Amino acid sequence: MLFFSHCLGFVLDFVHFRYQYCKARSAFSAAVQLVCVVRPTPSVTHLPSRTPLSLHREVVPSAEDLSEKRLLACPCPGASCKWEGPLEAILPHLAASHHSVVRLRGESVVFLATNVHLPGSAGWVTVQSCLGHHFVLVLEKQVRQEGHQRFLAFVLLLGTSRQAQGFSYRLLLNGKRRRLSWEATPRGVAEGPASSSLSTDSLVFDTVMAQTFTNNGSLAIKVTISSS
Amino acid sequence: MLFFSHCLGFVLDFVHFRYQYCKARSAFSAAVQLVCVVRPTPSVTHLPSRTPLSLHREVVPSAEDLSEKRLLACPCPGASCKWEGPLEAILPHLAASHHSVVRLRGESVVFLATNVHLPGSAGWVTVQSCLGHHFVLVLEKQVRQEGHQRFLAFVLLLGTSRQAQGFSYRLLLNGKRRRLSWEATPRGVAEGPASSSLSTDSLVFDTVMAQTFTNNGSLAIKVTISSS
């Protein structure tokens, strides 16, 4: 009986995510190759089963960037992960300790964050690999004083600040007769994932704006990265 | 002596606004024809000296829109203006009682709101006339609990809800390697200027985002209206 209920749950989950996947694809242009369903990042994680992340040589900083040699915090939002390590160990850490962080290849993808309507702080993270680099896409929901909530969406380059200056990214939220777009330069992950200090490099929006673009509790963000 | 100090003040104001005008023009494409320097709307006003607003027949609602016949509030944000009147009296009211509300002609203009950094709630309003209609452009700064501030920017059509469905507008904030864009459908002014209920039809952003795009206390918003 337990087996059948598990199977039923799996099938229902599959149908639900497939439906959201199709909705997210239809909301954007046909040029988008990939849609990634991203669940909130849990604080306790285990090894990934499907999409292992690996370090590529191109994200290692150049010898000139001495400031990037220090220990860096995990780029996942929130304070739940206490990991620190050098730049080149971030991808292996995400693969080993954050199984919900999947990896997409391509310059234009759709980041589909699920359950954004649930109460409390949360974070959604994925890795986008393109243009010879790895980028970390982050959506964070912060709960501030008196229950005021805000969302921050931003892109980090797994590389140095200098390398990050060579790229730009665009986030696009598409709704019924409404469209919100944000273009900016990614930050090098060495500048720190502390989202409060990142807010000038982030798309910041409130709960009402999030609800405007949310469909069945999921928020689809089209992310396009280009070299500038 | 008083005469000379007044003259000096006038010249300094002129130089300052001319500088802001040129900065705002350079921030956007050459296709933009008009830049409007918009000061916060005062609560006590008098007759305008330069840009009188006049009612054009095309904003009169059709006979089918019976719901639009009721008395409407002044579209200026805040509760300082208690005026109410029919749709066709709004433009004459703005001309007579809100001298800071100027009028621009063209489908693409730059709305330059000054002194957005000053503390407290404030509103900036102008009228954009194009495509045979008049649109009210509103930027509002709201101060909420515990000093939390937010900005709302939106467009109202001086017409019915049905007429408004035939248009779309785009707000563009341009900064150094950053760009925020919002596309939506204007609301008919008969739906009410109460900005709290408008937030799903508004570009909503916080103080940090405003500071990102502010230059010398002025926020330039490129407004483009098109028929959809």
General description of the model:
- With 228 residues, chain A is an alpha+beta fold.
- Helix content of chain A is 21%, strand content 36%.
- Chain A contains 5 helices and 14 strands.
- Chain A has helices at residues 2-27, 90-97, 161-164, 195-198, 207-213, and strands spanning 34-38, 72-73, 84-85, 103-105, 108-113, 122-130, 133-143, 149-157, 167-175, 178-184, 187-188, 203-206, 214-215, 218-227.
- In chain A, strands 1, 5, 9, 10, 13 and 14 form a 6-stranded mixed sheet that branches. In chain A, strands 4, 6, 7, 8, 11 and 12 form a 6-stranded mixed sheet that branches.
- In chain A, a hairpin with a 5-residue loop joins strand 7 and strand 8 (149-157).
- Chain A is globular.
- Chain A starts with a helix and ends with a strand.
- The model of chain A is unreliable at 43-64 (pLDDT under 50).
- The A-B interface holds A 144-146, 148, 150, 168, 177-185, 199-201, 203-206, 208-209, 211-212 and B 144-146, 148, 150, 168, 177-185, 199-201, 203-206, 208-209, 211-212.
Summarize the structure.
The first copy, chain A, is α+β, with helices and mostly antiparallel strands.
> What string, H for helix and E for strand, traces the elements of chain A in order?
HEEEHEEEEEHEEEHEHEE
Helix content of chain A: 10-25%
Oligomer status: homodimer
Rg calc of chain A? 17 Å
Largest sheet of chain A: 6 strands, mixed
What is the rounded distance between the termini of chain A?
56 Å
Class of secondary structure makeup of chain A:
alpha+beta
- Give the mean pLDDT of chain A: 77
* SS strand fraction of chain A: 35-45%
User: Which protein chains are joined by the largest interface, and how many residues does each one contribute?
Assistant: A-B, 26 and 26 residues
Number of helices of chain A: 5
Low-confidence stretches of chain A: 43-64
What's the number of extended β-strand segments of chain A? 14
What is the approximate shape of chain A?
A: globular
